[in-house]
Write a structure and sequence with these properties.
Blueprint (H helix, E strand, L loop, with lengths): L9 H7 L4 E6 L7 H9 L6 E6 L6 E9 L2 H11 L3 E2 L2 E2 L1 E4 L12
Antiparallel strand pairs: 1-3, 1-6, 2-3, 4-5
Length: 108
């Protein structure tokens, strides 16, 4: 048990006390831009970060990305409203992102 005067690390408080939420957006059209994705989520609240995952070989989007919102209530509302929405001809899937397990490959 932690002593009353010891605060948990910043990462702990951000992840477990709900001050921000990272969302995974899948099944994006390959033509969807980061600006379009950001605008889609900004309709539901403030967006702290937004990025599409890019294929290293082709230089084009892989069809998924991440949006981080500082307000968990706004993030949950965006997730509920946008999951299954048609964006650029594709029904996107939105869910809470889970931390990637640490492996030798991503430890580089």
């Amino acid at each position: 048990m932690l002593a009353a005067n010891i605060l948990p690390p910043r990462e702990f408080s951000l992840q477990y006390h709900g001050t921000r939420m990272k969302l995974l957006i899948r099944n994006l059209s390959r033509t969807t831009t980061e600006a379009e994705l950001r605008a889609l989520f900004e309709a539901h609240g403030r967006v702290q970060s937004c990025n599409l995952v890019i294929d290293k070989k082709t230089g084009g989007p892989k069809g998924f990305g991440f949006v981080e919102m500082p307000g968990p209530g706004e993030a949950k509302a965006a997730m509920k409203t946008l999951n299954g929405k048609d964006v650029g001809g594709s029904k996107i899937r939105v869910k809470k992102a889970t931390p990637k397990p640490m492996t030798d490959r991503n430890a580089k």
